[in-house]
Amino acid sequence: MRVLVVDDDRTLREGTASVLQMDGHAVTSTGRGEEAIELVRRRKFDLVLVDLYMTPIGGIDILRACLDTHRDTIVVVMTGNPSVASSIEALRMGAWDYLPKPFSASHLQVLVGRAAHAVASARDSREQTAAPGARPQLVTQSGAGELMALLGESPSFRKAVDLAQKVAGTDASVMISGESGTGKEMIAQFIHKHSRRAQRKLVPVNCAALPENLLESEMFGYRKGAFTGADRDKAGLLEVANGGTLFLDELTEMTMPLQAKLLRVLQDGVVRRLGSETHDAVVDVRFISATNRDPQDSVKQGILREDLFYRLRVVPIKLPPLRQRTEDIPMLAEHFLRNSWQRHRGNVEPPVFGNSAVDFLVSRQWRGNVRELQNVIEHVAVISEPGQAITPEDIPVHDDGAAPVPSDTMMPSAYLNEPFHSAKDRLVSVFEKEYLSRLTVRASGNMSKAARLAGIDRTTLYRLLEKHEIRRDDPGDGE
Q1: What pTM does this model have?
Q2: Which domains are delineated in the chain?
């Protein structure tokens, strides 16, 4: 790589340059911030190692100049105090990593090796993007043989998938956020499958499923005798994922001590097993993390380390809940029906969704998101007959279908400016109209069924529909 080393400590600067030159890198070095900025403006460097504390022009100024000139330059800040706010600020501004001083030659070589891998990945990604037909397929095959589709055309979902495609060919850490069931693990698998590490393992770690001591031994491994029952040496999942990808699911459930230990692996790539007095392995791992919480809120609440957050969230991807991408529901439902039918019933003529069934699916809130939709449609496939027209009655759902109404929608501040009874009457009218509109969709226009679902007689139902000017198309029910 083409490397620039910037540090006003001559001994450290020359020592760093010497180690990198022996490893075959083309190294330029300087002790002055002004000269560093001129160099990055005149020449493109793959990697810039810069001391955070220099005067009069400091590391933050040089970082900004690097990223303004060549956005894909990897910048690593070197600092003797990595815990202070300025180190976090450097990561927030776009620094790739930071290197705590003092550091050993091996520590430097591990970090630079990771940077070289990232540079090579980015080059390969650019070449693939430039090649004809380079767009990766959006339907992948899982190890269990189940089709996993990244289907949808809603803008918010396409934005997330397009970002996953762009980052897949790099080595950047990715943090995926979204409600449970939105497809975070599927996005992680997609990124890994289309990365340079695709031939190596994707190792998932559910941080919420294991107690702290067991999670630690699973991730970092242990030496024989480290604890009761440790009758042999065992490699941890970080070592198993070497050369591949580690997927940290529900990251915010990891305890703070474990987060600190993980941060150390991110810094130097060295794993120390439980019960070991030495470093056991040097690992090259790409990190993808996921959480159903808001990551920044987790930092504010003190359950996620800020420095770990910025290291793992180089590229953030946010997946929308299904209720915010209702235009994708018909496509997803058809896909899940087709594949579930094929798996359970073979090549027999499949059932089809009637228009009322599609409307019914779209009207649901799907609190369990895509995962809930998939499970419901699989149930439909199992109980349906060949060629059957699926109706709302054939779709098993377990909620009342009413939209969850946020408190600020349920009681807008404008209501508080009215007398109690008029505010109540207006609020009840809004509820009645929304309820009846959804009820008629759910009953497919059958007024007898709608009355039964609502627990009222048909005369009352007709009166309410007329009151709110809701059109009713009763196909007739024989009553």
Answers
A1: 0.62
A2: 2-130 (3.40.50.2300), 140-320 (3.40.50.300), 323-394 (1.10.8.60), 407-467 (1.10.10)
